[in-house]
Amino acid sequence: MARLFCFKFFLFTPPLWDFLHIFGLELIKDNDMTTLGTIWKMTVRSAMLVVLAVVAIAITSCSDADDWWGDEATKEVFEKGISVSESGGEVNVTFAGNDRMWTPSVVCDDTTGGSWIEVEKLITDDDLACFSIKIADSQDIDQRRAKIEFVSGKKRHIVSVEQAAKPQVVVAKQLYLVPSAGGTVDVVFDTNGEYSCNILSIAGSWLRETSATQNGHRVTVSFAADANDSFGREAKIMVCCRRTGDAKTVVMRQEPRQFASVETAYVATSGQLATMLGSDESNWRRISHLTLRGTLNFEDVETLKKMFKKYNGYQAPLTTINMAEVQTHEIEYRVPTCIFSGATSLTAVTLPLDARTIGTCAFQRCTSLRSITIPNDVRTIESQAFALCENLTEIKISSLSQLTKIGEYAFNTGTAVDDLVLPGGVTALDYTSLFGLKIKRLHVRATTPPIVAPERKGKTTTVLCVPKGSVAAYRNAAYWKDFAEIIEDSEDDSE
Known about the structure:
Helices cover 17% and strands 36% of the residues. The protein is of the alpha/beta class. The protein folds into 4 domains: 2-62; 66-163, Immunoglobulins (Immunoglobulin-like), CATH 2.60.40; 169-254, Immunoglobulin-like, CATH 2.60.40.10; 332-488, Leucine-rich repeat, LRR (right-handed beta-alpha superhelix) (Alpha-Beta Horseshoe). The longest helix has 27 residues, at 34-60.
């Protein structure tokens, strides 16, 4: 602006043109030759214009670098740009001079919208305007670029920014489904560096890498899968960027063969039952008798629940399930809450022998269930565990059972059973625990009558069988005294 002002001053100021006029006239005032005078006047004026032009050019060519550059480091930033690694960084620039109204803006050549660059004004006074340029860590597989424009009035300065890409792998998808017949499966991923692709675990026996191609970042690795003649199975493939160690896991899951009505499934790794059964519900719903072995977790429990839900409007045909050899430590040694609730097709079940708790509503509304054997390790039967099992007529509890607690309405079935054993460890009982159960003979193994709360009034026709020498105690105990017949139990139940 100052340079332009000086130029205009010399060209358009009236005193200057008066001077030129006078000077020219004085040189030719005594010359009577009009033509010669005119030529001379034009020559002088032209010469002066040339001089003024030279002066103007000299003024405008004066360097204004010192008008705003704070130091050589800042100047170098604007000349060479900013180049950082994928980990980002911070660079400061300083403008000098009286003009303090610098406004930065970021323009990127990608879809990030400049969110990876932050420009912060640090200090501003009459002489300096300092900015911090912060560049965040890059998660991009490609190099990213941007420009930062600083504007103040008609002044404009641009600094270019380049950030290196992060060496990595990016998988197209993490799960590939393989048909039971086998075949070729292509695993697709992107990488910007050297990579490795390895099959994990024992899956190599049915899965093999056959080829690999790369076009730019895009890599395609082909695998051949054998046909499956058993339960569903899966393999894990690890794709790794060698420079950074960045790794992604891809799962190959193969569908099982067609199931028969009777099947035995060994769950070697907990959480794999869903994989073993496959994604085709119409296939695993062919099973009517299932034996489970191995270790289950809560994911497997959810799969079991799903097996008993209605499919296409009809109940699943699964009627018998044997879990005697199932390990339950990953499900807290429980037959979990509501695991078989509403399984109206279930007629027989063998519980895990190491289970210590039968959860709330575990078998609620299992309307086809006829018999249940409580394993000896079970300590607690929670509330409504067998409620509304309207065909449950046999409840087997051994005198050797470690059972200590029966929850509210646990056996509210409305059915009749011939014999029910309460082990000696049951020292307290809610009066509703056996509510709704019509018992012909109740065998209580505790020599001291268990406490029942609250006390229920009214006689019952159930025959109470108690240990030898305990009849008197039961006849004088609340709740128990209401039994019409109390006798010594001569039966040796040692199952």
